[in-house]
Amino acid sequence: MATVESKARVVMTPGKMLREIRLLQGLSVQNLVGLTGYSPSSIRHFEDGRLAMTDHIALRFGQVLNVDPSVLLDQKSEASNDDVNHPSHYTSHPSGVECITITEHHNFNVGNAIKYLWRAGLKDGVPVKDLQKAVWYIQREMKRLEKKSLPVKIPLNQPAHCSLEDGCDDGRQRRVGRR
């Protein structure tokens, strides 16, 4: 019987590799939860590729599975080493969520505070500096909100008993809007 040699190459994604290693070691998802601290849904998402396998995450799985973390990284993709678009200090959260995915839903001050809390110590190994920056942005946001909530001043030509809300002028009620 003749054999056919295939030139096709099976592409093993980081998630598929993680699943194969887990199964070869006889581990269930629940076993991996206990070893890594990741949730069952996060582990399934890593395995099916819905969550990215960052350097930090590959290192964690590599430690608990006793394998070289580089086998869990996509060698074709530079996403794991992309210091411009996806720096590791912003993609290292155990959930696999990238920091910007969260911060873009907040205003500038709150987003920056979250960013510095997120990366505390991961970029340069000095967490206190990042935490101080987060506090600075939080205090800045608090001052902005305090200014925003200051009482509205009544113009000098309005009687003292009137406010801009009730719209009175010389003690009489003005029609505001449709009635």
Structure, explained:
The protein is mainly α. It folds into two domains: 86 residues, lambda repressor-like DNA-binding domains (434 Repressor (Amino-terminal Domain)), CATH 1.10.260.40; 53 residues, no CATH class. It is 46% helix and 0% strand. The longest helix is centred in the C-terminal third of the chain and has 22 residues.
Outline of this structure?
The chain is mainly α.
Number of strands: 0
Which stretches of 5+ consecutive residues score pLDDT under 50?
Answer: 1-9, 76-80
Q: Helix/strand-derived class?
A: mainly alpha
- N-C termini distance: 93 Å
Topology-level CATH name of the largest domain: 434 Repressor (Amino-terminal Domain)
CATH architecture identity of the largest domain: Orthogonal Bundle
**Mass-distribution shape:** elongated
Strand content: under 5%
Mean pLDDT across every amino acid position: 77
Main beta sheet = none
CATH class of the largest domain: Mainly Alpha
Q: Sketch the topology as an H/E string, one letter per element.
A: HHHHHHHH
Radius of gyration, in angstroms, nearest whole number: 28 Å
Number of helices: 8
CATH superfamily of the largest domain: lambda repressor-like DNA-binding domains
Number of spatially distinct domains = 2
- Helical content band: 40-55%
Relevant terms:
single chain, 179 residues, mainly alpha, 434 Repressor (Amino-terminal Domain), 2 domains, 8 helices, 0% strand, elongated
Topology:
Blueprint: H1 14-24, H2 29-36, H3 40-48, H4 55-65, H5 88-91, H6 99-103, H7 108-119, H8 127-148
Helix pairs in contact: 1-3, 7-8
